[in-house]
C-alpha cells in the first residue's frame, strides 16, 4: 500500500523541482526527503526518480502517480470538510494569505465580522506574494488565500488548488497631469521590484503601447508610489485598492486594464465550514464599488 505522506512528498517534488526545496518547505532534512522517496519507490515497484546532472526528475510512472496523488489528497480534503461540518460551531485557527492592498482594504471588515459571528474561530492573516500562495497552500501553511492576476499577466492553473472569483478592479495611470500611456514613452517610471506580478503587468502594458519603460524607482507600496508620483519622480500604474491615499496634486486616469482577485484553497475544501465562512466574509467586505 502506498503511503499518503510519501505521495505528498512526491507531489511536492513535482511542483518545487528539487529535493532541497521540498525539504525546506516541509521542515525536513534533504536526506530525510530522499529516504522517504526511496521507500515510496520500493513500495511502487518501479523507478520514480532519475538523475539529470545534479538534479532528479520524475519518471513517466512518477508523473502518473502524482496525478493519482492529487486525486487522493483532494478526497482527503473532502473527508476533512465533511467531518468539520458535523462538529458543533466553528472553532480553532484558519490561516488566510493575502496581498497588502487587500489586507488593508478588505481584511479588517472581514475579520470584524468573523469575530462577531464566530468568536471561537481564530482567523489569522499573513501577507503573501501571490506567487508563493500555491506552495503555501499545498504545504498546509495556509487554508485560504487571496490572489490576483492582471490582464497582461494571467495566472496559470495550479494542480490541487481551486477557488472562486471575488472582484475585479480597474487600473489607473498615476501622473501629475491628465495623460495616456503613450504620453510617457520617455518618462521615468515607478514600479514594483522585479519578479512581482505588478511589475510584469506594467512592463507588458507599456510594451503593448509600443515602448519599454525606463524604471527610476522600485517600490512595493502603492502609498509610497503615489507620493513619489506627486513629487514628480515618475509615473506609475496603480489598482483601485491602491489609490485610497492618493495625494490631491496628482491625476488618476482610468485605463482599460483590470486586476482580478479570487480566493484559492486546496481542492476538496470547497465545503469546509471554515473555508466557506471566511470566503463569505471576504466577499461581504469587498468595497461596494467593486461588487
Q: Report the helical percentage.
A: 40-55%
Rg from Cα: 22 Å
CATH-defined fold name of the largest domain: D-Maltodextrin-Binding Protein, domain 2
Task: Work out the helix count.
Answer: 10
Our count of domains comes out at 3
> What's the CATH H-level homologous superfamily of the largest domain?
Periplasmic binding protein-like II
Which structural class matches the secondary elements?
alpha/beta
- Helix-strand topology string: HHHEEHEHHEHEEEHEHEEH
Which SSEs are present, and which pair or pack?
Layout (H helix, E strand, L loop, with lengths): L3 H13 L2 H8 L3 H15 L4 E4 L2 E4 L1 H26 L6 E7 L1 H6 L1 H11 L3 E7 L5 H6 L5 E7 L10 E15 L12 E4 L5 H13 L4 E5 L3 H9 L5 E4 L11 E16 L6 H13 L6
Parallel strand pairs: 3-4, 3-5, 7-8
Antiparallel strand pairs: 1-2, 5-10, 6-9, 6-10
Keywords: DNA-binding, Transcription, Transcription regulation
Family: Belongs to the LysR transcriptional regulatory family.
Organism: Streptomyces albospinus
Amino acid at each position: 500500500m502506498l503511503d499518503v505522506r510519501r505521495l505528498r512528498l512526491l507531489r511536492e517534488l513535482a511542483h518545487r523541482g528539487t529535493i532541497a526545496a521540498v525539504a525546506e518547505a516541509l521542515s525536513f532534512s534533504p536526506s530525510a526527503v530522499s529516504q522517504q522517496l526511496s521507500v515510496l519507490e520500493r513500495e511502487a515497484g518501479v523507478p520514480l526518480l532519475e538523475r539529470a546532472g545534479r538534479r532528479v526528475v520524475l519518471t513517466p510512472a512518477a508523473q502518473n502517480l502524482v496525478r493519482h496523488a492529487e486525486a487522493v489528497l483532494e478526497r482527503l480534503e473532502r473527508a476533512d470538510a465533511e467531518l468539520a461540518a458535523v462538529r458543533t460551531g466553528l472553532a480553532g485557527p484558519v490561516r488566510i494569505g493575502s496581498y497588502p492592498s487587500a489586507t488593508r482594504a478588505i481584511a479588517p471588515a472581514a475579520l470584524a465580522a468573523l469575530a462577531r459571528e464566530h468568536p471561537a474561530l481564530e482567523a489569522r492573516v499573513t501577507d503573501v506574494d501571490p506567487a508563493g500562495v500555491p506552495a503555501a497552500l499545498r504545504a498546509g501553511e495556509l487554508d485560504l488565500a487571496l490572489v490576483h492576476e492582471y490582464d497582461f499577466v494571467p495566472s496559470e492553473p495550479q494542480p490541487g488548488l481551486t477557488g472562486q472569483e471575488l472582484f475585479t478592479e480597474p487600473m489607473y495611470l498615476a501622473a501629475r497631469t491628465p495623460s495616456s500611456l503613450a504620453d510617457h514613452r520617455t518618462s521615468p517610471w515607478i514600479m514594483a521590484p522585479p519578479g512581482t506580478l505588478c511589475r510584469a503587468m506594467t512592463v507588458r502594458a507599456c510594451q503593448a503601447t509600443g515602448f519599454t519603460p525606463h524604471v527610476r524607482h522600485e517600490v512595493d507600496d502603492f502609498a509610497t508610489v503615489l507620493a513619489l508620483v506627486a513629487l514628480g519622480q515618475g509615473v506609475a500604474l496603480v489598482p483601485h485598492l491602491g489609490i485610497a491615499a492618493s495625494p490631491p496634486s496628482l491625476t488618476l486616469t482610468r485605463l482599460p486594464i483590470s486586476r482580478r482577485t479570487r480566493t484559492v484553497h486546496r481542492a476538496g475544501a470547497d465545503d469546509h465550514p471554515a473555508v466557506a465562512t471566511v470566503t463569505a466574509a471576504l466577499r461581504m467586505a469587498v468595497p461596494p464599488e467593486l461588487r
